[in-house]
Amino acid sequence: MSESPHATRRREAARAALAGVVAGVAASGVGELVAGLAAPGASPFAAVGSFLIDIAPPWAKDATISLFGTGDKAALLTLVGIVAAIVAAAAGVLELRWRGVGQALFGLAGLAGIAAAMTRADAATLSFLPSAVAGAVGVIALRLLVARIPRGIPPLEGPLPTRRDFLVWSGATAVVGLAALLGSVAVQAGSRAVTAVRRAITLPTPVSTVAVPAGAELGLSGLSPVITPNADFYRIDTALVVPQVDPSTWQLRIHGLVDQEVVITWDELLALPLAESVATLTCVSNEVGGDLIGNAVWLGYPIRELLARAKPQSSADMVLSMSVDGFTASTPLETLTDPNREAILAVAMNGEPLPIEHGFPVRMVVPGLYGYVSATKWVTDLEVTRFADATAYWTDRGWSDHGPVKLESRIDVPRAGAQVTAGETVIAGVAWQQHVGVKGVEVQVDDGPWTPATLASAISADTWVQWSVPWAAASGSHTVRCRATSATGEVQTVTEAPPAPDGATGWHTIQVQVA
Length: 515
Hints:
Elements: H1 5-38, H2 44-55, H3 58-68, H4 72-97, H5 101-118, H6 129-146, H7 163-191, H8 193-200, E1 251-256, E2 262-265, H9 266-270, E3 275-282, E4 293-302, H10 303-310, E5 318-323, E6 328-332, H11 333-336, E7 344-349, E8 352-353, E9 363-365, E10 379-385, E11 408-413, E12 419-420, E13 423-432, E14 438-445, E15 451-452, E16 454-455, E17 465-473, E18 476-486, E19 508-514
Parallel strand pairs: 1-10, 12-19
Antiparallel strand pairs: 1-2, 3-4, 4-7, 5-6, 5-10, 7-8, 7-9, 11-13, 13-17, 14-15, 14-18, 16-17, 18-19
C-alpha cells in the first residue's frame, strides 16, 4: 500500500528539520572552535547571549535571577541553544520548500552573530570571524543535507537520494560539529594562560591585616560562615564569557573632571601599601532571605588615594567605573573619597589573588553600596563625572543611580520548610547593613512576642553579623520571622518591595514543621 502524499510531505519535512538542526550543530561547533583559536571572547553563543543580556528589560533580569540564581548564565545559554535549534529546524523546512530561503536564514544568523560580537566594548579585530565562519558552514551544510533528502518527486538530474545517503551525510556532519565543539573546549582550556599567571602570583605583604574576632562565629550547623569561601561566593554579572585579563597588560585610567589624568599599571598597584579589609557584598537582585550575598577578606588599595592624585574638580559628583568588557557602574564620588570607608581596588580575596570569575586581576569593593553601582570587576577605567551627565549599565535600564544597601536580616536555621524535632532548638541567621552596622535582631514565632536574639561579635560595620535565639519548639506548623535594628536605631521595615529599582525590603518569613 503506497504512502499518502500528506504522509510523504510530513516525513520529508521531519528530515528537513533534522537537516537544519545537524547543520546548526556543525555551524556551532566550528564557530566555537574558531573562537577558541582566534577570538576567545567572540564565541557565537556568548556574543548573542551577551547581546540578549544587554537588551533585556529589568523585569526579565529579575525573573531570571529569581528562578536560576547564580545559574542564570547557564540558563541563558541553554535558552539560546534551544532557540537556535528551533530556528535551524525551521531553516531546514524552509530550504526544502523554497531553495535558498533556509540558507539565507543561516546567513542572517551569522550576520547577527557578527554584529553582536563587533559591538561589544571588548571587541577585537578578529571578533567577527567565529560567527562569519559559523554562518558559512551552516549555509553549506544545510544545502548539502537538504539535497540528500529522499523526495517523492525525482530530481531533475543526478541519482535519486536514498534514506541511507541522508543518514550517512547527516551523521557525518553531526560528528564533525561535535568534534569541533570538543576541540574548542580543549583549545580554550589550553589557551587560558591567565590562569597560570594568576597561580604564579606572589601577593605582597599587607601593611595591615584583619583579625576576625573569635566571637564572630557562632559555630552552628547550617548557619552561613562569617567569611564566605571563594568557591561559595555568589557571582552575578553580565559576562557570559569570563574576561581573561593578563596583569602584565592591565592598567587603570582615571580621567574626566580631574586636574591630572592618572594611569596606573599592575606592577605599580602592587608596589603601593596594600591593606586588608573585610566587607560584605550584596547584589541588588537579592530577594528578602536570598543568598546573593557574601563576606570576604580583601587586599587592596584605597580608591580615594588614587582619586586624590587626579584631583577631582568641584563640579564632579560621580565616578563611572568601566570593566574591560564594557560594563559600567555609577558610584557617588563622596563615597569613594570618604576617609572612613574602605572603598578599594582589590587584588586578593581571602588570602589568594582574585578568582578570575570575581574580577582578576583587579576589581572594586565599596562597602555600603549594592554591587551594581560599585563592585565593578575587571575594572580598567574610572571617569570622574556627574550624575547629570552620565549614566551606567543598570541605571540605563531603570535602576536607581545610587544604590545604598538596605537593612536586612535572614533566617538560616532552620531552613524554610524544614522538619524540626520538638523540644529545645535554635533559630539563627545573619543580618547586615554595610557601613551602618547592626545593633540588634528580633525573632517572632507565629503571632507571639518579639524575642531579642544574641548577636555574635561584629567584625565591623561593613560586614554582616550572625545571630541566634533559643526556641522551645512545640509540635505543629509554625511561622518564623525576623527583623533587624541598625546601629542608628532604624528598624527593618515590614513593607515588602521587589529588588527593582533599589533593593528588596520586608521581613524574612519561613514556615517550619515541628514533630
